[in-house]
Every structure is written in C-alpha cells, then in structure tokens.
Design brief:
Length: 243
C-alpha cells in the first residue's frame, strides 16, 4: 500500500493557516480560551469556543489538531508533572469527548480503502480519549477502524483483530503499570503465530516519555500523536501486504 492516504490526511489538517486566512495567532487565541474553559470545567464555554472556530471557517481537522489536541497535550503534561490530579484529568476527558462529537459531524466522509485497524485502551486503564482521537484521524485517512473502548483485555484485541480481519492493533495507555497487559498482546500474537500478519502499535504517555519503551513490550511501532499513528499504521499495513 502506498503512503498516499497518510499524505492526504496530513495535508488536510496541516494546511497553511495563513493561506486560509487564519493566522497562527488566531489559533493561539482559541487554544488559550479553550484551555481556560476546560480548566474551569466550563462545558458551555468550551463548546461555544469550538463553534466560534467552526464559524470562522477554520477547517475542522485543523481545529481538532491545533486547538483540541494541543490543549489536551498541555493537560497531559500537567498531569505527568503532578500539577493536576487524575480525577481532574478524567473530568477534562469527558469534556473533551463532547468536543470530539461536536467536530465529528463536520469531518469529511471517507471510503475505507486503506485497511482495517482495531484500537482501544488496555485493561487497567480507563482513559479513552487519546485512542478516540487517533481513531478519528485513522478513519479520515481511509482506514476501517473498530473501537474497543477502555479497560480492554489483551486477548480481546487479538480476538477482534482476527474476527474483523485487521492487520494492525493499536493499544493505548496512560499508566505505566499496564505494560504487562500491553506485552501480553504480543505474547498472544506470538503464541498464535500471528506476528507476521497482525502488527502492534502502542501509544500514550509512558511511550511518549520513553521513545524506546515500545521495544520492551515487543510492539512493532509507537506513535506520539494522530499524525504519527497514521504514518506507523500505513507503513505496517504495507509491510504486512508484502509478506
């Protein structure tokens, strides 16, 4: 499989903002106000800020990446530095899910021609927003995506991949203590002699902090954001198709 779909989606949400009439400082203003709304747990204001950006004709993919994802990354850094609590992250994630739903209706429909992916958050972790964002962008890139939700047992990833004919499993976690569960996905694939036909991509805060951690759980690749996930999945799909 060529990298055309990855290039297409990257182009979609990384358009020249100045060329579109939306300079960077305008996006910074939306980021700042959206961050403050979520910090204050103000769902009404957060929704209105996103609507204002839509009304300003900023592409929905750009809003998702440059406003929503950027702000969520900032909260992730605050949590990693223990400047906000886990319960606050949960609450912010619930507000974030509303934003995803708000933007989804404006994102372009795509034909699923790039391959099939199974995605979810590993058992022991109830943080599902990161996987949800990646799933949104994978669909935009033309992948058929099956979302398993949160707290997903290792075997369920493999069983679903087999059932749906998926060539890639994407497993997410925010918590370091779930590494054994992530590793178990690879172990099950190996036990069933599926490592050549089903590849494993991992993501989440522990892998962002340690770029080599994915190797210790025997994953095939890691991704720090949606753009990286598209590239990683595209490359692994191509590798599987050539085996």
């Amino acid at each position: 499989m060529s990298k055309g779909n990855a290039q297409r989606i990257t182009s979609f949400y990384r358009k020249s903002l100045t060329g579109e009439g939306h300079p960077a400082d305008q996006l910074v203003a939306y980021q700042t106000s959206y961050f403050q709304a979520l910090a204050n747990m103000d769902a009404i204001t957060a929704k209105q800020i996103i609507q204002d950006a839509i009304d300003a004709k900023i592409p929905p993919g750009t809003i998702m990446l440059e406003v929503f994802c950027s702000v969520m990354d900032r909260f992730g850094e605050l949590q990693a530095n223990q400047e906000i609590t886990l319960s606050e992250i949960y609450a912010i994630a619930r507000l974030g899910q509303t934003t995803i739903d708000q933007l989804m209706v404006f994102l372009p429909e795509t034909r699923f021609t790039s391959g099939t992916v199974v995605i979810g958050t590993i058992a022991g972790d109830f943080h599902g927003m990161g996987a949800k964002i990646v799933a949104v962008f994978l669909r935009m890139a033309g992948f058929q995506v099956y979302e398993l939700g949160v707290n997903v047992p290792s075997a369920t990833f493999v069983d679903t991949a087999l059932e749906k004919g998926a060539s890639v499993i994407c497993a997410s976690t925010l918590l370091l203590h779930t590494m054994d569960q992530i590793r178990a996905i690879h172990d099950i694939l190996a036990e069933r002699k599926l490592t050549d036909s089903i590849k494993l991509v991992v993501g989440g805060a522990p892998f962002n902090f340690d770029s080599q951690l994915y190797k210790t759980v025997h994953a095939d690749a890691t991704a720090i954001n949606a753009s990286d996930a598209i590239e990683a999945v595209s490359q692994l799909m191509e590798a599987v198709s050539h085996d």
